[in-house]
Amino acid sequence: MKKVAVVGAGYVGLTTGAALAYLGHRVVVLDVDEARVEGLRQGVLPFFEPHLREVLALAQGRIRFTARYEEAIPQAEVVFLAVGTPPGPKGGPDLSQVQAAAEAIGRHLGEGFTVVVNKSTVPVGSGNFVEALVRRAYAQAHGGELDGRLAVASNPEFLREGQALYDSFYPDRIVVGAEDPRAVAALRELYEPVLEQSFPPPPFLPRPERMGAVPFLTTDLASAELIKYAANAFLALKISFINELAALAERVGADIREVARGIGLDSRIGPRFLQAGLGWGGSCFPKDTLALLAMGEEAGVPLPIVEAARRVNFAQRQRVVGKLQEALGTLRGRTIALLGLAFKPHTDDLRESPALELAALLLERGAFVRAHDPVALPRARREVALPLEYAETPEALLRGADAAVLATDWPEYRTWPWGSLRALFRTPLVVDARNHLDGEELLRLGYRYLGVGVPQRGSLVREVS
Ligand code: UDX
After folding, report:
1. C-alpha span between 198 and 159 (Å, rounded)
2. Which domain holds residue 20?
């Protein structure tokens, strides 16, 4: 059992804190937002994440929330930095929250040995930056040096929103970058139940079959920091690659889903993250690819592959607009029903959501956009500045629509009663921007159905062949 402080009660911090407390550690989660802390104490979660509430309930007694550094830091053996790193003006992340947290940690460190661990996604070199800030703040507050009582580490987080708890308990690997072996030892001990898979699985998150011991990769600070960016950029370019080929597949009469299956069976490529669609969004891929480019520029190393992945990604939204425009003649005055607003299913997160970017493009062309989302509507009403109309039910969404566009692949959209809904449309056109619906069935029901990278019925190529 270790005493842990987590600074930042956002996605990463709260999930990490909950999972560590579930595993038996004593955890204090700190956030400077007092309203958020007060809410958490009363069981109000600041975002929607499956199983977070249940895991927190099972960890009760081992996890506390505070807005005061003096209640979290002095006793902690391991302090995680999990604060926000939003994009700054030049593409690189804004590190002001990291800086403020590191300084506050330094001022409040106790007498024992402490490992300060960076979990926020920060540019290479940030570990050293944090160490210098903590040491300076400690010296200023206490008048003496920390010397050997501090070690820093980088422990990048790979969790996916919507599956954050699952990913915390059953990760593909745990990466730790540190120069001080004591930091590595502390983190190995902290994660031991996960590394050995020796904890009782939460009943609602059964251990996956074939789950063995989890690889523990220890490396230097800079490499660990770069691993996080490299992983996210690689996944982003995998998706951009399949999206680029989807456009070609459409033209030559191939089906991108078959192509993805065919290449995915090659174990060197792998089947995942090859789903063509509206492109990627969310709080990580857009920000991290941009930060990587900024890092490259600063280091004088161009990164044309990452640059191209971003370009292809943003063009993907345009392609869907193009399809609608072609099918409807014009977008001016047309009513487009948007299925999904969140950047992906099982979350209400709207940050850099492809659905919202698509909505903005449609509005620019004079369309009316009416949107539905099973979970994100309340957040959309609060946060989205676009003049969207919101619909709570399939009927309210589709009445008088000129087209429906599926933008987020929520499972429930597959089971909507498409047969009876057809009569509500002005023109029964479905653009499935995630290849998520049963296209054959929709065609049978009398819809015009357009997917991404799938052969179009009656396309030129098909007629010729
Ligand atoms: C991602 C990484 O997966 C995670 O490891 C990292 O720590 C944070 O960033 P997340 O942003 O939660 O996680 O979402 P993810 O599930 O990776 O999806 C990202 C975007 O890619 C979504 O918009 C999703 O719709 C899109 N996507 C994903 C595709 O378009 N096709 C795919 O095949 C997979």
Report:
1. 20
2. 3-219
**Given the CA of residue 284, which atom of ligand 1 is nearest to it?**
9
In the reported structure, the alpha carbon of residue 404 is separated from the centroid of ligand 1 by a whole-number distance in angstroms of 24
Q: Which of 314, 307, 273 is nearest to 291 (CA)?
A: 307
CATH assignment at residue 185: 3.40.50.720
Amino acid of residue 338: L
280 Cα to the center of ligand 1, angstroms? 7
For ligand 1, atom 14, which residue shows the shortest CA distance? 160
Q: Among candidates 193, 148, 188, which has minimal Cα distance to 168?
A: 193
Q: Does the annotation flag 36 for ligand binding?
A: yes
Whole-number Å distance between alpha carbons of 340 and 159: 22
Is the CB–ligand 1 distance for residue 11 below 6 Å?
Answer: no
Please give the pLDDT value at position 462.
Answer: 37
Which alpha helices (H) appear in 1-95, and where do they start and end? 11-22, 34-41, 52-58
Q: Which amino acid is at 178?
A: A
Domain endpoint, select from 157, 185, 219: 219
In the chain, the number of structural domains is 2
The 3-state DSSP class for residue 406 equals: strand
Is the same domain home to 323 and 197? no
ipTM of the complex: 0.96
Angle CA 171–172–177, to nearest 5: 90
Is residue 317 assigned to a domain? yes
**273 within ligand 1 shell (Cβ under 6 A):** yes
List the catalytic residues.
284
Whether residue 74 lies inside any domain: the answer is yes
Residue 228 lies in a domain: no
Q: Is 182 annotated as a binding residue?
A: no
Across the range 299-321, mean pLDDT stands at 97
158 assigned to some structural domain: yes
Determine the number of helices (DSSP H) and then strands (DSSP E) in the chain: 17, 14
Between the CA of 351 and the centroid of ligand 1 the distance, in Å, is 12
Within 10 angstroms of residue 151's Cβ, the number of other Cβ atoms is 21
Predicted pLDDT of residue 157: 94
Q: 351 a known binding residue?
A: yes
- If asked whether residues 246 and 101 sit together in one domain, one would say no
pLDDT in tens, 338-377: 999 999 999 899 999 999 999 999 999 999 999 999 999 9
Q: Which amino acid is at 174?
A: I
